[in-house]
Amino acid sequence: MLAKKDETERIEPMEYYDIFTPGAPPKERRFLVGRKEEIERLETYLLSPGIHPIVVGPRGIGKTSLVQQILDEQDRSVVTAQIEANTVSNFDELARCICDDLGIDVHNVSSTSHEMEETMQAKGKLVVAEGQLQHKEKTTEQMIGLSGKEISPQSLKRLLISSNTNAVISLDELDDLPGESDIPVKLAKLAKSLSNQSKWINQKFVFSGIGRDAHTLFGGHLSSQRNHPVIFLDPLKKNDFMAFFSAAEEELGISIPSPIKNEIIQDADGFPYYMHQVCFHMFLCHSKQSPSAIVTDYHYTEGKNKAFEDAFSHYLRKYKYSVYRLSDLQKSILREIVVPKKRHHNYFELEKKVARINNVSVKEAKKAFRKLMDSEYIQYRKSDDTISLNDALLKPFLRIKLNIRGTGRQASLFDG
Ligand SMILES: Nc1ncnc2c1ncn2[C@@H]1O[C@H](COP(=O)(O)OP(=O)(O)OP(=O)(O)O)[C@@H](O)[C@H]1O
Ligand SMILES: [Mg+2]
């Protein structure tokens, strides 16, 4: 197990905005619920030579929060770096950021390293190259001097070997790169190379982003996944949310009525982001409205409405403009998709149903389906003719938009 950093003693009590942090990782470990097993797995991987794990899952499920927790838990002697791959324009810039965070000077690196060399002699100089390699074991005093040159995976690996710094480097948002980016292919090369030479490498990488598997982050470029085990984050469970609510209520000294908690849990569909958004705004409204120790249906309804607006300006911003312009027919389709528990719906059955309940032709319904596909609300899976939401995080927020009430709640909640 990794040694834990001392927790600085907190003097001030926490406010609701310290606990409900939509879009930011939980501030304290006790507010990161339901990820015990994943944390243990990550800790083990970080102690295993040559293993550089990958964390994936749907949007807003808690990938960054999990990785952040692991970074926070590192011993003080370990340098941690967090880089969002979508904030740099290419691999060279990414490599420079990594070196910068680790205190490695790329301008004039002088290192003594005992390593399996993969080098090529050219014009009397030792240069880093990726083709026509000759392998030899040697101790070398090398001057890389990469200030003007582009940093390749090979040269970054060398820079890392040259550094004695123990580090954990999180590379996040790997899903969000333009198609022409050289980052996935070069990162895959680096990952393979790092695992091959684990003996000399003091740094660990944790790769993360939206997706189902390594393929979604690296395309087909990661040749072997043996050294890059994947942690897929499942939706949180009811008990996880309950644990969060208990901790929040205790900290704030304010209770949330059970029907409200149950409905938030049910609507959240396993997404902590939904719970954070709704509760943040619910408590904001509560703080303005009343000094009482209980939140009410009014606060909750306000919270939901504001959460909707915020979500479509933030995690779901891609839908920000179109969500206010959905036609009645499109809303009817979405309603059919977000109401039942199942995620996949037979396209042809749904098309007929939507035409029937809206009293329009199947052709017209088809057009509405097409528009929703074009604007990436829904996707069609050809293999089994099913339709599902393109982004599972849309579900809880569309339920607000479509005014779908949770079950087990009194109708009075939204009336009046
Ligand atoms: N295990 C958890 N317990 C409680 N809250 C969590 C947990 N995981 C994430 N959250 C909260 O959920 C929200 C989304 O988390 P986070 O940003 O880590 O998700 P993500 O998967 O990285 O999102 P994205 O796909 O946009 O990168 C944040 O408000 C965060 O505080
Ligand atoms: Mg994230």
* Biggest sheet layout: 5 strands, parallel
Q: Beta-strand percentage? A: 15-25%
The strands making up the biggest β-sheet line up spatially as 2-6-7-1-8
* Helical content band: 40-55%
Along the chain, the helix and strand elements come as HHEHEHEEEHEHEHEHHHHHEHHEEH
* CATH topology label of the largest domain: Rossmann fold
Overall tally of structural domains: 3
Radius of gyration, whole Å: 25 Å
Identify the CATH homologous superfamily of the largest domain: P-loop containing nucleotide triphosphate hydrolases
What's the helix count?
A: 15
Instruction: Identify every distinct bound molecule in the structure, by name, code or SMILES.
Output: adenosine-5'-triphosphate, magnesium ion
Class by SSE composition: alpha/beta
- Number of E-type strands: 11
Terminal Cα separation, in Å?
Answer: 55 Å
Reported CATH architecture of the largest domain: 3-Layer(aba) Sandwich
Overall geometric form: globular
Mean pLDDT: 85
* Contiguous runs where pLDDT drops below 50 for at least 5 residues: 1-6, 109-144, 410-416
Give the oligomeric state: single chain
Text of the CATH class of the largest domain = Alpha Beta
How is this structure best summarized?
The chain is of the alpha/beta class and 416 residues long.
Layout of SSEs?
Blueprint: H1 16-19, H2 36-47, E1 54-57, H3 63-72, E2 79-84, H4 91-102, E3 110-122, E4 125-128, E5 134-143, H5 153-162, E6 167-172, H6 183-196, E7 203-210, H7 214-218, E8 230-232, H8 238-252, H9 258-268, H10 272-289, H11 297-311, H12 328-338, E9 345-346, H13 347-358, H14 362-374, E10 378-381, E11 386-389, H15 394-401
